[in-house]
User: Which sequence fits this backbone?
């Protein structure tokens, strides 16, 4: 086994700059050499598949992974069967997300047996859990690379290590030979925490006309059920000038809609050297020419300011949609969840927002089955659903996440007890959403055309400012355009309509 210094020298790695992102651009060049060799060996462009689990943050991270994979010479495919490189960007917010990954890894194992040059990488939130990495090391030894949420910017560097590893057998401290017929080392690089934010790395946007933008990373709220603060680390805001610069570039590249991303956008900017509020950031973004629509996710109710409501009300660009997670309507459960608001405070906030912006759509997240929750508590939640009149709600059955305070609470409620309450609540959510949707019938609203309808290619799908979808006659050339659409038929969660000249 080569010493690291000799290894670096042999591979031209000794002159790699320490500074980021320059360092990663160097590794991109080096990785491209390997991919070129692979291309020659295969006689075609190597293909890669990026699979994303979880939230919009992960979707944005995947665009960064894809940006690097394209730069080093891979071509994207949706088919894992065809791919020469597969990466899973994982989520661990509920256990079913983890189970899906394990299930699919079994399939990848058989693919790799047929195609030994297939490289498999895992990253994202699930990898920040020690027990997960232990399990993969033990039972999924065919995986080539594991990294976490804090060092995703190092993807090119890690890829070079994987390629080198495959060619020379150089081992990292974490990796041990698998004891298989051919030598296989798993590269593992997980950080517990970081305060670094590396700017200006490649990104490959999924949509030409819209884009997510990270405005902050991590979370400090520690809701007692939630694993996100443990796997994404402490809250860090990006510098406003970096955000503005990124959005200006996106606008120049044809993006008309931006989605500002953070676990709690309402606390944006507090930890900056020169603190600014989220509402101030929005005001700056509003000025960027070419940007027609601004969205953001997620707003924690405890931090939603009057300033934000005012800025939204006065804005021509901020969409008429607010995602305002409730989680529970029971004060007792809210307190145990560490949400730091009461049912009454939440409802008052909703009234205030609706009074200021009458055409706003409010959506939410709800958890049913938190430890100690009784059917009476669920009734409180249902009461909020009725009173708030949600346009849509994501409802989840509580999932116990190891390491969170709620996991250690007594009175965990078995799923068969939760089910009936969950189903009842879901019915109220659906009925309320339908009622709300019906109110729009006959109106003419602006839709941003997102795609050609999958079922019927004579239709396109547009998104209204309030986040509702409308299908109407159109073609590929309409994608990315803002059009005035008449909302003719309500189908519960979406409309069909036609373009108004
Ligand atoms: N930062 C966002 C949401 C992050 S996770 C916020 O604060 O709203 C998205 C949603 O997953 C949460 O709103 C919550 O409803 C749900 N969730 C989080 N942890 C969960 C758990 N352990 N079980 C079930 N649902 C959970
Ligand atoms: Fe999780 Fe709460 Fe942070 Fe949202 S605000 S990510 S629910 S801890
Ligand atoms: Fe999942 Fe991580 Fe998002 S745990 S919900 S992908 S922040």
Assistant:
């Amino acid at each position: 086994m080569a010493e690291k210094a000799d290894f670096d020298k042999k591979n031209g790695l000794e002159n790699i700059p320490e500074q980021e992102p320059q360092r990663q651009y160097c590794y991109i060049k080096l990785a491209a050499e390997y991919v070129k060799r692979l291309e020659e060996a295969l006689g075609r462009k190597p293909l890669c598949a990026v699979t994303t689990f979880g939230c919009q943050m992960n979707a944005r991270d995947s665009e960064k992974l894809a940006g690097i994979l394209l730069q080093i010479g891979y071509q994207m495919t949706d088919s894992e069967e065809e791919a020469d490189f597969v990466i899973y960007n994982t989520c661990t917010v509920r256990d079913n997300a983890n189970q899906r990954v394990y299930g699919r890894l079994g399939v990848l194992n058989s693919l790799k047996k047929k195609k030994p040059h297939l490289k498999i990488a895992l990253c994202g939130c699930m990898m920040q859990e020690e027990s997960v990495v232990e399990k993969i090391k033990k039972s999924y030894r065919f995986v080539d690379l594991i990294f976490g949420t804090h060092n995703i910017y190092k993807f090119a560097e890690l890829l070079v290590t994987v390629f080198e590893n495959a060619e020379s057998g150089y081992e990292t401290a974490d990796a041990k030979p698998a004891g298989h017929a051919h030598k296989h080392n798993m590269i593992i690089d997980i950080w517990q925490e970081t305060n670094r934010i590396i700017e200006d790395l490649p990104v490959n946007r999924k949509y030409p006309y819209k884009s997510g933008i990270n405005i902050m990373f991590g979370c400090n709220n520690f809701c007692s059920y939630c694993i996100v603060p443990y796997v994404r680390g402490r809250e860090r805001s990006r510098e406003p000038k970096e955000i503005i610069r990124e959005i200006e570039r996106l606008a120049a590249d044809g993006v008309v809609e931006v989605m500002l991303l953070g676990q709690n956008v309402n606390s944006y900017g507090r930890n900056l050297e020169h603190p600014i509020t989220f509402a101030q950031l929005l005001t700056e973004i509003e000025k960027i020419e070419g940007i027609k629509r601004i969205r953001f996710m997620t707003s924690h109710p405890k931090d939603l300011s009057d300033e934000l409501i005012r800025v939204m009300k006065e804005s021509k660009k901020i969409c008429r949609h607010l995602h305002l997670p409730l989680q529970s309507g029971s004060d007792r459960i809210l307190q145990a969840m560490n949400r730091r608001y009461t049912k009454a405070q939440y409802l008052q906030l909703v009234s205030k927002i609706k009074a200021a912006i009458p055409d706003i759509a409010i959506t939410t997240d709800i958890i049913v089955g938190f430890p100690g929750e009784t059917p009476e508590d669920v009734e409180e939640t249902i009461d909020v659903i009725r009173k708030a009149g949600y346009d849509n709600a994501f409802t989840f059955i509580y999932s116990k996440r190891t390491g969170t305070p709620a996991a250690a609470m007594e009175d965990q409620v078995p799923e068969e007890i939760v089910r009936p309450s969950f189903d009842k609540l879901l019915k109220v959510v659906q009925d309320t959403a339908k009622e709300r949707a019906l109110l729009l019938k006959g109106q003419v609203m602006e839709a941003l055309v997102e795609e050609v309808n999958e079922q019927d290619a004579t239709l396109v799908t547009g998104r209204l400012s309030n986040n509702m979808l409308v299908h109407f006659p159109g073609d590929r050339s309409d994608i990315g355009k803002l059009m005035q659409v008449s909302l003719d038929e309500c189908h519960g969660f979406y409309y069909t309509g036609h373009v108004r000249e």
Summary: The pocket of iron/sulfur cluster (ligand 2) is lined by residues 219, 221-223, 226, 228-229, 263-264, 300 (CB under 6 Å). DSSP finds 14 helices and 19 strands in the chain.
